[in-house]
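If you are new to this repository, start here. Below is one unmodified record pulled from the training split, so you can see the exact layout before writing a loader.
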Amino acid sequence: MITGTIINAVTVVIASAVGIAIGSRLSESIRNAIINVLGLAVLLIGISMALETKNVLIPTISVVAGTALGEIMGIEDALQKFGDRVERRLGRGRFSEGFVAATLLYCVGPMAILGPIQEGLTGDISVLMAKSLLDGVASVALASALGVGVAFSSLSILIYQGFFSLLAAQLSSIVTETIIAEFTSTGGLLIMGIGINLLELRKLRVGNMLPALIFAPLIVVALHLR
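And here is the target side for that same chain:
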């Protein structure tokens, strides 16, 4: 039931290994250039996703409420501490940055929810296969600059997408086109935050915004129950 997600995770690991191998041969200036270009691309993806909303108040309220909850819970700090612990054991640099950035990039977006749900309901892994190719390309670029932390984001993919696959049958009556649109838009705002961080325009604690992805569908459901 999670075959597509497993393929996705393995692709990220393999592509990350390729990126790390290439990265060791790249100069600092080239690696920085890769991050800057990737930041621009991520920002563009985020903008296109954010424009999917049919009601701009839904993603706005979701991000505000989600960020407040995330700050209280200290989600980004927890992710950072987890990454730091593994980094100390591995003795590698920039582990946390790569792990957090890749986790958010691969787990926020329409394909990360539509793909697992499609597989869980029908066994069709076509969406997840396409996502695997996209994530693989991104992993080579990210890992060449940020290192082994990108490969460990495969664990986040397994947990996040596996969750949606296993609960797809129960969620089928809730996940409407409207929910997907507002979830995508809200996720787009978070993706934009990742792009801003990669470009070093401003340091945003995007990890603390993750609860917004829960608020978005809840708000849609609440509006339709009125």
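Two things worth knowing about this chain: The first helix runs from residue 3 to 23. Residues 3-224 form one domain.
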